Amino acid sequence: MLISTTPGPVEVSISSRGHRTMPESSSSSTPAVKRACDACHRRKVRCIGDGTRPCKNCTSAGLTCTYNAIPQKKGPKGSRAKVISELRETQRQSQLAAKRNGWDLDSPAHSPADLKKAGLLSVEMMTACVDYFFANLYPTQPILHRQKVGEVIGQMETSIEAYCLVVSLCAYMMIQPNMVLPAEAFDGLEIPPQPSFQLGHTLLQEALRVRKGHNYIENPSIWSVITSFFFFGSYFCLDRHNTAWFHLREATTLAQIMGMHEEATYRTADTIESSRRRRLYWLLFVTERAYA
């Protein structure tokens, strides 16, 4: 039925029980949202948007408006300012991680200083490890040249490959049963004095970690091959033979990529470099056949 009142007609329906019900308003000041965006849901605030474009809350707070979260039960409200900071930091870290996957870590913005853990090696340690190698392992593994090693040490601050080579060499030497570091080797370092074997294991993990930040597979060098061989030797001494075999195969694969099995690749290098590469190739060949 219609009941006319001033200023205009209003339609009122009468239910079967005789009660009058008023119609719902056809318009609202803020449109209802079926599902809140991730940020508004996390902040426990009303989402103002249509679900197809950034909502007003995310726009004003500088957040990315997404609808990825699975709806959960409401929890206790916390500090909204803190939640916004957490969301911003999470999104910032995600964006940095995505960019980092496409960066060239050999660029000046990503030197070893950005990746390495400071305070692990001293000059005395590196000297002791180099001396130990040439005194004990060089006769059976003649793959390094003392002068060249000194040059590599000088490039540790600017080259990830040089850093990993020296750290893996020191790890390999410190894991040797008879290796003893001089008393002054820990002077000025951030780590306390510890047995050589324990420090060698720490350096091994450091070299492996830093090396992940460098694409040594696409453009391998002689340093890459030697580093993988030192990883093999370290894990062999630790009786972790599956891991040792993996790194030995990695070293031989890198050598294959470099064409070290082809005679022509030795003609462009100088006498010392050519001799060192030949020794490395045959060491890998013999070791792999003996280890298989």
Automatic annotation (TrEMBL):
Coiled coil: none annotated. PANTHER family: GLUCOSE TRANSPORT TRANSCRIPTION REGULATOR RGT1-RELATED-RELATED, ZN(II)2CYS6 TRANSCRIPTION FACTOR (EUROFUNG). GO terms for biological process: DNA-templated transcription. Keywords: Metal-binding, Nucleus. The keyword Nucleus applies. Residues 1-32 are annotated as: Disordered. This is Zn(2)-C6 fungal-type domain-containing protein. It comes from the Eukaryota. InterPro entries: Carb_Metab_Trans_Reg, XnlR_reg_dom, Zn2-C6_fun-type_DNA-bd_sf, Zn2Cys6_DnaBD. Pfam families: Fungal_trans, Zn_clus. Residues 36-67 form the Zn(2)-C6 fungal-type domain. One of its GO terms (molecular function) is DNA binding.
